[in-house]
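[audit] Reproducing an earlier prediction to check determinism. Same input, same settings, fresh worker. If the tokens differ from the archived copy the diff job will pick it up downstream; this log only records the rerun itself.
[audit] input (159 residues):
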Amino acid sequence: MEGKPRPPATAEQAHAAMDQMIALSHIGQEDIARRLGLSTTDLTCLGHVIGAAAAAEPITAGELAVRAGLTTGAVTGVVNRLERAGFAHRRADPADRRRVRIVPDATANVRVFEIYEPFYRRLGEQFADYSPAEIAVLADWFNRTTGLMRTYLDEVRRA
């Protein structure tokens, strides 16, 4: 399947478009978090909790702290708020009873999906406009850029 013709763009134009998307994403995350009764930090952490559970690897508080760039003390507060809001709960690790895993509540996926599904459906429709080779390039770019961002943020935090 051939991709559709695309308008020409420079790296600078792509960078500017990315900056606009990221800025709008921040605003959107605030709106979505507010709608769910959470802070953006709590919503970000809930995303990590849901993602880890979906991969059949429920996350520990320490792992959550690393992924979210928070202290373990801050993560304790996040998990407390997620529990109070009915989005997650602590569960003893069956392999090590001293360790606690954070798991989403059975209703968490449904509650979050209700908000994100219309947008994800539209993203799916947009991806349908791209060939498999183009989607591979997009996925590669997002994965590599995430790695660059993670490395750069580590540098900024150490500075």
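[audit] rerun output stored. Observation attached for the diff report: Strands lie at 59-60, 88-93, 96-104.
[audit] end
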